[in-house]
Every structure is written in C-alpha cells, then in structure tokens.
Description:
By secondary structure, the chain is an alpha+beta fold. The chain is 29% helix and 27% strand.
Amino acid sequence: MPAPLLQRMRSGTVQGTKHARLSINNQDAVMSMQFNVKSLNKQFSVGLVSDGSTGVPAFSRSEVGSNILVVFCAARIQEFILARVPLADIPARLYDSVTTFLRNFSNMIMPANIHWPYPIQFTGGHSFRNTQNATQRFIVDYLAATLRGFVSDGESTVVFRAGDGAQIIGDAVMVYDQDDRPDYPALSINSPSGGFDVQVYEATQFPRVALATDGIEKLLKLEELRLAEAVFTHRQGDILGLQRLLNDLRKSHPALVDDDATVLTLEIIEGES
Length: 273
C-alpha cells in the first residue's frame, strides 16, 4: 500500500531594512490554511501572499489592503471548495468576488462626494493624485496591493497571480517584474481585461510550490544562497524554519532585503504508510 501524501506549508515575512529606516510598516501580508472536507475525502491547502504599494509613504497605508485581501480570499476560496467549484475555476470566481468587494468596500468607507484632498500638490509620476476624488484616493492609498496564491487538494495545484513577485514551481524560478506598476486588483475594478494569470499543475509532478513578494528578488540572484532550494530545506520539519531563514538573511544581507520580503511554500510529501 503506497504511503499517503501529506501537504506541508510554511511561511515567513520580514520588514525591509529601508522600510525600517523610514518607519514604514511591513506592507506584505501572508495567509495559509489547511482543512479536510469529509464529503470529498480530501485535504485542501490554501495559501495567499500580498504586497502593498509603497506609494507615497506619508499617505500610503497599503498594509490595510494587503491584509484584508489575504483574509477575504482565504474565506472565499473555502466557500468555493465547499460549493464544489472545480479548483481550476476558483481564480476566475475569486477575482470577481475580490473586485466587487473592493468596489463596495471603498465606496462605503470613503464615498466620492466626501471632501478629502491631499494637503500638497504632487508633481511627476504622482501628479495623477491631484485630481482624484475621495474614493480613488482611498483605493490608491489603502487598497493597492498585489495578490498571488495557490489552492491544492494534493492531486492538483492551482496557482494564480495579479501583480509582480516571484514563484518557484518544481525547479523553475519565475520572477515577474512589472516596472513598479503592478496589476493591483483594486486598480482593475472597472477593467474589462482584469483577471488572474492562472496555472494548473499536477501536484505529484510538481510537489514544491513557493510564492513570494518582490522583496526576495535580489536574494534569488545571489547564487551562493541557493534560496530557491533553501526556502524548502532550511530547518526542514520546523514550522518556523522559513521565518528563521528570512530573519537570518535580513541580518546577514541587509542591503539585499531593503524591501519587505515574504515567502510561502507548499510541499506534497510522502507520509508514513
């Protein structure tokens, strides 16, 4: 009798050293959960990572959006699974739920007719802020955040993303650079082309998946760190092993961890038979 397959997740997040110097909060967020559905005789793993926009530090509070996004999405994914939505169809349903929620949430918190201008006039790349209404300002300053995640039942793993960052699937490392203009779901509410980039993998063929914010990109380039392997193997078996790894790297390579860095991993492994 073959050994059962187990799904193991770990995560870690650290505040960037530059953000610490400027007294900017960690604007990343991470959320993971596992649960069994008895009627389906399956265990499900759900993981989500979000990176809030630094924007204009004096006004931006995008850690609000990143943390709300991962919690909201974790709940919706669980509901979709219980409603027997096929895993591959979940990202499309989720994107619609996310953008509808963000639209309603922003309108409820800060209606467009509220007087809420910035106290200064912006120039250059931020000049668009001078003409924003209150709702638009709230979205840009509080809700602008990337979103990437996975959902797995141990047989299939569905990976989805909106925005920049990095991911590791098996041995392949993919870095998505959007030139500091990521596809934030909050800014795509009325865009007909909005949606997640989705990939579906057979879990046993690609038993390792890692999702990360763009704060680890410089570390990935340092060959001696072998970070793409270390996120899975450092203190293997220790649920805090990945967090300890990021803590150590922030201390040993502060210049390479100037931005907030967050990593979330999933491994499909053989358990005891």
